[in-house]
């Protein structure tokens, strides 16, 4: 057995395994019950557009609480400290609020079934095809990350080889997605949200107690490699890779806070799909806004444990000091669980990690099957078949996506900090897509040709920055290369799109109603108030204002 396995082995007992078994029984039971509600493809891919805002809001945030958020952010916490909060307070919440207030009326109001389908209506088939293919590729790559980490937990717990663990983990997620489609994924995501919080909150509290409270953590972090800079969110030089404070702030605000963040939250169908499953326009707009409230507090149960692990766990402290050893930053949470949690609580914590990885992978697969079935197969390969055919196709596509994700899990295994890998993927796929979206939504002159040419140009630019960084031409440690790549992709996409638009013919104004902001009547951009939606707490703009004010306050307190 490899040495790393023995270092990370968690001494679970019967009570821990019982908790895990009960959780899996619930997960599969939800999938079986959701199957009863699936009678057509809309039920399978979009839950029949019937779910209440609180359910879709929690699913919205839980879909993002996958390996990226839990292990990736705790790894970042261990490596960089408090600057990691930028992924939440700068790199998520403003974009989530923008999605709810400004963009959801276009997605939900146009009754499109996916984000690429919106691209089809705005720009035509070429841009639609580029978007659909790039999205599908991104989802199986990201699903591989979640699957690899899910398999790592099984490996640590049971000692099974990683490849066996990958296959077992994949089969469990595949089972409930193919049974109940998006409804099974969403209701499981709500369950998973509460399980994740119940698992990580006690770990944080026990860890803080062990390290001597916040004051003790402050003293130990100050005396560790990286020093006191890890206790202040700004300017975040270690995270951004810039030595200049000014450039670091610009990189975080523009690269992460604008391009990467808005690119991910406003155009990523994994998230938008949850809001599309809402029962009406008001619920769809409130979905990301409701999700923003728990989102702003997630750093305290994800980043803080990573910081504690970096000063409390000897193996990780050695790795941070010397850059070598049998563990790395991705192991921060597992090492902390190993050292601090008693049996019973350990089982709950393991269940929380399993829940987070399953939520992330299920979100990737449920959006992957929708885009491949609707946007690629139905549109370009096998047209005009009965609805039952596409329902069956969706289930088979889920199987194929899972098999591919097993392969892409091998790529994820090669990174010591998985957030570096994920941010790189987002700079490739999300940053140029956001540029195309935002220009096309607010500039009616943008043409169909500009849609796909800009998208391809932006993606190629991000890939070029990555290649230059990997070969040492651009020296940007941390996640600076991702921020620069995202910013460059955004700017190139905008410039190319404007130039191509000026050289080609635009669509007529009447073809763009409901797709371009200035040409869409206000009544189409706001919900008709329905019975039960009159309370102040159901007003999207007011809720968004409260969330933004709280986020600014957190930035000031921890800045």
From TrEMBL:
Membrane topology: Multi-pass membrane protein
Subcellular location: Membrane
GO cellular component: plasma membrane
GO MF term list: D-glucose:sodium symporter activity
CDD domains per record: SLC5sbd_u2 (cd11478)
Entry annotated with the keyword Acetylation: no
Keywords assigned by UniProt, alphabetized: Membrane, Transmembrane, Transmembrane helix
Residue ranges crossing the lipid bilayer per the database entry: 14-34, 54-75, 87-108, 129-154, 160-179, 191-209, 246-267, 288-313, 345-372, 393-415, 421-443, 450-469, 481-502, 541-558
InterPro entries for this protein: Na/Glc_symporter_sf, Na/solute_symporter
PANTHER family documented for this protein: SODIUM_GLUCOSE COTRANSPORTER 4 (PTHR11819:SF195), SOLUTE CARRIER FAMILY 5 (PTHR11819)
Similarity comment: Belongs to the sodium:solute symporter (SSF) (TC 2.A.21) family.
Name of the protein this chain belongs to: Na+/galactose cotransporter
Organism for this UniProt entry: Kribbella turkmenica
UniProt lineage: Bacteria, Bacillati, Actinomycetota, Actinomycetes, Propionibacteriales
């Amino acid at each position: 057995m490899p040495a790393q396995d023995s270092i990370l082995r968690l001494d679970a007992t019967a009570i821990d395994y019982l908790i895990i078994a009960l959780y899996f029984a619930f997960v599969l039971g939800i999938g079986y019950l959701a199957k009863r509600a699936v009678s057509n493809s809309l039920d399978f891919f979009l839950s029949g557009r019937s779910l209440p805002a609180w359910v879709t809001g929690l699913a919205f945030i839980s879909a993002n609480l996958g390996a990226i958020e839990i292990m990736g952010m705790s790894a970042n916490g261990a490596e960089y400290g408090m600057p990691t909060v930028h992924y939440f307070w700068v790199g998520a919440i403003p974009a989530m609020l923008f999605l709810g207030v400004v963009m959801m009326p276009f997605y939900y109001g146009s009754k499109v079934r996916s984000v690429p389908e919106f691209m089809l209506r705005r720009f035509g088939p070429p841009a639609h095809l580029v978007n659909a293919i790039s999205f599908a590729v991104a989802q199986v790559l990201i699903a591989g990350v979640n699957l690899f980490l899910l398999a790592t937990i099984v490996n640590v717990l049971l000692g099974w080889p990683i490849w066996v663990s990958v296959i077992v983990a994949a089969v469990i997620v595949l089972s409930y997605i193919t049974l109940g489609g998006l409804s099974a994924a969403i209701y499981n995501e709500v369950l998973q949200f509460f399980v994740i919080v119940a698992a990580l909150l006690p770990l944080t509290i026990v860890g803080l107690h062990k390290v001597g409270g916040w004051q003790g953590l402050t003293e130990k972090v100050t005396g560790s490699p990286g020093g006191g800079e890890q206790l202040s969110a700004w300017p975040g030089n270690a995270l951004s890779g810039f030595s200049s404070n000014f450039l670091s702030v610009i990189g975080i605000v523009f690269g992460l806070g604008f391009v990467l963040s808005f690119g991910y939250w406003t155009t990523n169908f994994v998230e938008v799909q949850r809001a599309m499953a809402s029962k009406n326009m008001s619920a769809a707009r409130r979905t990301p806004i409701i999700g923003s409230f728990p989102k702003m507090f997630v750093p305290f149960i994800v980043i803080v444990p990573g910081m504690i692990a970096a000063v409390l766990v000897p193996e990780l402290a050695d790795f941070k000091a010397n850059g070598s050893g049998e563990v790395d930053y991705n192991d921060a949470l597992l090492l902390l669980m190993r050292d601090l949690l008693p049996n019973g609580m350990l089982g709950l914590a393991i269940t929380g990690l399993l829940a987070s990885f399953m939520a992330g992978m299920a979100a990737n697969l449920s959006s992957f099957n929708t885009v491949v079935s609707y946007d690629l197969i139905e549109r370009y390969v096998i047209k005009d078949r009965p609805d039952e055919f596409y329902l069956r196709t969706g289930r088979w596509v889920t199987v194929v996506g899972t098999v591919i994700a097993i392969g892409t899990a091998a790529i994820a295994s090669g990174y010591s900090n998985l957030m570096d890998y994920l941010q790189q993927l987002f700079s490739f796929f999300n940053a140029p897509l956001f540029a195309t979206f935002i220009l096309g939504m607010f500039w009616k002159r943008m043409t169909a040709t500009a849609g796909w040419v800009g998208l391809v140009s932006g993606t190629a630019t991000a890939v070029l920055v990555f290649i230059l960084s990997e070969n040492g031409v651009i020296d940007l440690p941390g996640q600076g290369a991702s921020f620069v790549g995202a910013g460059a992709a955004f700017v190139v996409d905008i410039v190319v799109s404007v130039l191509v638009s000026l050289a080609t013919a635009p669509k007529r104004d009447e073809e763009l109603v409901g797709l371009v902001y200035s040409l869409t009547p206000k009544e189409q951009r706001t919900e008709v108030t329905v019975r039960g939606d009159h309370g102040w707490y159901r007003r999207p703009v007011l809720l968004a204002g409260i969330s933004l004010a709280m986020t600014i306050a957190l930035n000031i307190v921890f800045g």
